Amino acid sequence: MKVLIQRVSRARVSVGGEVAGEISGGLLAFIGVAAGDQKADTDYLVNKMVNLRIFADADSKFNLSLLDVKGELLLVSQFTLIADTRKGRRPSFTDAAPPDVAEFMFNEFAAEARKTGVKVETGKFQAHMHVELVNDGPVTIMIDSGERLRARG
User: Are 4 and 27 in contact, with CB atoms under 8 Å apart?
Assistant: First the structure.
């Protein structure tokens, strides 16, 4: 499972001209679910994301987390994060989880995020969405749940 997070001062996702989710500040997270991902992947990523110190303190240092600043979270499902571009010019999505599994995992991710006390909004699964954001920084970070299995050197 991969999560691309962006620190934002505001973000919104619309489907068919209607706002599906909107936050005033915090993190916009694009979530890609790969075949074989499990609850442990979700738990790792939610914990890492809400505790990642990427918000500035009074000295302008990255010392504060989403929880510390009482930020909000906008989650958007994005299977294209699982794209394999090593061969040819058309991305392959064969490593992405099937839609029913991905939707279940995305909903589990949102449920785990809500358990942290953070306000959570979402887009609409498998819909064509328009995402608007004001990236604050900019700060954009990719987190791969496979990192939890690799030793740091």
Answer: no
Query: 25-59 as b/e, with b when 16 or more CB fall inside 10 Å?
Result: bbbbbbbbbbeebeeebbebbbebbbebebbbeee
Residue 42 annotated among the catalytic residues of the structure: no
**Residue 97 near residue 145, CB atoms below 8 Å:** no
**Residue of 42, 80, 122, 140 with catalytic role:** 80
Q: Among 58, 42, 55, 54, which Cα is nearest to 112's? A: 42
Q: What is the pLDDT of residue 150?
A: 73
CB 81 within 8 Å of CB 66: no
| Averaged pLDDT, 19-41 | 97
